[in-house]
């Protein structure tokens, strides 16, 4: 699209310069004041400036595409970073939840210490009773 426009503009300028009676007066920029007739007719742009203008337009179009690609990449990177932060936040919450969990303390009748002491006392008592009866 840009190349087609540039080609059409170049063709129009070439046609304008070939029909100008005083083409040499339009070879560079000419300051035109209000009410003063122009030194030439056509588009008031020299050939060098036209080629420079076309080059700048082409570079601007390429730059716009690069900027758009960079903006798209930045949006994708931002989404990826947000997802990573969310994953880390969920992991931290799960870790804190796991750390705060404490096992229930068993009741007295379910503790192994109670039954160990009870067994030892009964063993000693049984032994004393057996030797006392003999």
Would you kindly provide a brief summary of this structure?
This protein has 134 residues and is mainly alpha-helical. 70% of the residues lie in helices and 0% in strands. Helix 1 runs antiparallel to helix 2.
Please tell me about this protein's structure.
There is one protein chain. The chain has 134 residues and is mainly α. 70% of the residues lie in helices and 0% in strands. The chain is built from three helices and no strands. The protein has helices spanning 2-19, 47-100, 112-133. Helix 1 packs antiparallel against helix 2 (47-100). The protein is rod-shaped.
Give structural attributes.
rod-shaped; single chain; 3 helices; mainly alpha; 134 residues
Class based on secondary structure composition and strand pairing: mainly alpha
* Mean pLDDT over all positions: 78
**What is the helix tally?**
3
Strand content: under 5%
How many DSSP E strands?
0
What's the structural domain tally? 1
Separation of termini? 119 Å
Q: Main sheet?
A: none
**CA-based shape:** rod-shaped
Helix content: over 70%
- Computed CA radius of gyration, to the nearest angstrom: 47 Å
Order of helices and strands: HHH
Outline the low-pLDDT stretches: 19-24
What topology emerges from the helices and strands here?
Blueprint: H1 2-19, H2 47-100, H3 112-133
